[in-house]
Design brief:
Largest sheet: none
Strand content: under 5%
Radius of gyration: 15 Å
Number of helices: 3
Low-confidence stretches: none
Structural class: mainly alpha
Number of strands: 0
Number of domains: 2
Shape: globular
Order of helices and strands: HHH
Length: 81
Amino acid sequence: MPAESATIADIADRLARVSDIYAARNGIDRNDDWFALKLQEEAGELIAEHLRLTGRGRVGGRTEAASARRVTTRRQTCWRW
């Protein structure tokens, strides 16, 4: 399916399959601890982007539009967990 016609659900399904493969290949047990730590990681990245957007974080060459997109993506990821 071309990226232009993919829905968020399609993309989430693809990412879940890749995540499953990665976990299986690397012996990762995605237990309750893993999910809690993953949520914390995503929340930290969301906060970092928020701080960049509000002028209180390191920009690292990112445009405001790129940071705004990353905030949206991180919010979606956090709410999915």
